[in-house]
Design goal:
2 copies of one chain form a homodimer. By secondary structure, chain A is α+β, with helices and mostly antiparallel strands. The first copy, chain A, is built from 6 helices and 11 strands. Chain A has 2 domains: 117 residues, Jelly Rolls, CATH 2.60.120.10; 86 residues, Orthogonal Bundle (Arc Repressor Mutant, subunit A), CATH 1.10.10. Chain A has a 4-stranded antiparallel beta sheet with strand order 1-8-3-6, with no helix packed on it. A 4-stranded antiparallel beta sheet of chain A has the order 2-7-4-5. Chain B binds a DNA duplex through helix 5. Chains A, B: Keywords: DNA-binding, Transcription, Transcription regulation.
Chain lengths: 263, 263
Amino acid sequence: MQLPPTKGRSAPPDALPCCDSCPQAPGCHAAGLVQQPRRGVRLRKGQPLYLIGDPVTALYAIRVGTVKTHVTTGDGRTQVVGFHFPGELVGLDSLTRPRYVSYATALEDTKLCVIAIDPGSAATAAAPALSSQLFPALDYQARRAWAMQTMLALMTAEERLVTFLLWMADGFAARGFSSSAFILRMSREEIGSYVGLTLETVSRQFSRLAETGLIRVRHRCVELLDKPALRIIAERPTISAHTAPDTDAGTEGAAAGSAASNR
Amino acid sequence: MQLPPTKGRSAPPDALPCCDSCPQAPGCHAAGLVQQPRRGVRLRKGQPLYLIGDPVTALYAIRVGTVKTHVTTGDGRTQVVGFHFPGELVGLDSLTRPRYVSYATALEDTKLCVIAIDPGSAATAAAPALSSQLFPALDYQARRAWAMQTMLALMTAEERLVTFLLWMADGFAARGFSSSAFILRMSREEIGSYVGLTLETVSRQFSRLAETGLIRVRHRCVELLDKPALRIIAERPTISAHTAPDTDAGTEGAAAGSAASNR
DNA sequence: CGAAAGGTTGACAATGCTCAACAACTGTGG
DNA sequence: CCACAGTTGTTGAGCATTGTCAACCTTTCG
């Protein structure tokens, strides 16, 4: 946690047992990605998996643990761009690039599979081989980025946090865990950075939701007490798939008529 | 502009001359995507290319014109998710899905190439065939979504608009046009929706930038008078690729020490 | 046990939104 | 070609949400 960055990267690549014994095998985004036996990496809480600017040599699949990807801005601010959970791939955003475009850091003790990438071949040679496996993962990534965009553009603080909690809940549910009581692996500051709020606002909104009886928070332990109500809050500014396709709502130019506004 | 949605889609698919005569041929994201001769579509200002929920039958490459992709939210608000310019692909975000996940609407009179997609095969059969061509486009899309995410999460109104203008300028420059004087094809409201602000704020910030002498605005006509100064404003909260990787700045856990904050 | 990190809460300020009036431009029909 | 209506853009005043600064509490971990 206080180790110099290099330490994390040189972590002993002890060979872990392969997918057969992996708890994430079903539903793993890396399933069948490479045939050769994979190496593993272990990270302790706070250790970096890779740094921005490092040469891209591998893609990682999480076996156990949680990882955040993040960047820093010109004026020293930190921006979390993603949280990654067991079965997910880390490093996808850098796949076509020679060097990583973000940091990846373990939020807790974490074990990962290393999926080696032929240096430089990512965008070209690897494409045919990987694409059928990678496509779903890329698609997933794109869809999530897209959801983030609409969330950041037009949600209030409350809506953002409720949405975030429901995303977390869905993630836990997908992995067979309770979706109504779970532990957040990240700090308030990291949550805030991710959803575009300050840590104080995150804390306040959590308190407010708790007062209302919708959730229950103690430290990083969260209970969703009224999921239907939460869903309503979160889905207020969410995309409506088929909003009356026959009305002229779809046509542009007439958009000014509607009371369209942001936030 | 006031036509029923169906009209736009049934626009006469008059066969346009192929890539040889296309002004966008160099740098076109669709270059070499499909061998067969392509059909074309023409849209007039305000006409939809496709509607959310329509079955995905094609990908489109813009020959001339500008297209916006947008969605509507549960409470009736509109969210612009992308502006698309000549040489770019439209419909990528829906490529792996059976139905379009957004609207696409022409912002001005527009001509497009139709790249037919075997229904349902997008995610599977098409993958090997298309991937090598599609990869750059998907990568580009991912990178842009990512930039949007950081912009929406931590930029002020001024920073967002300057960034937007510079993006536009880069786009024009890449197509051989002046990057210091150009015409915005979209309304203030559409710009605002895209960058997460209200149209009033957009207007006000433009005025303020004009007062400062950094830009010059009349209607939709924009001149960038002091691009270096604009760059400084925009890059203030922008990702720094290699921020002193050796200092402890990269390590997490110590992040609390730095005055990291959002917005 | 004590220090450090993380979380909560309060007071205040400011950015950006809402409502509203008005001005400028576009396009259309007489 | 002009006048009008409709649309788009500008500007102002007030307000609300959220950020800032700061103090204090709680948990964790050495």
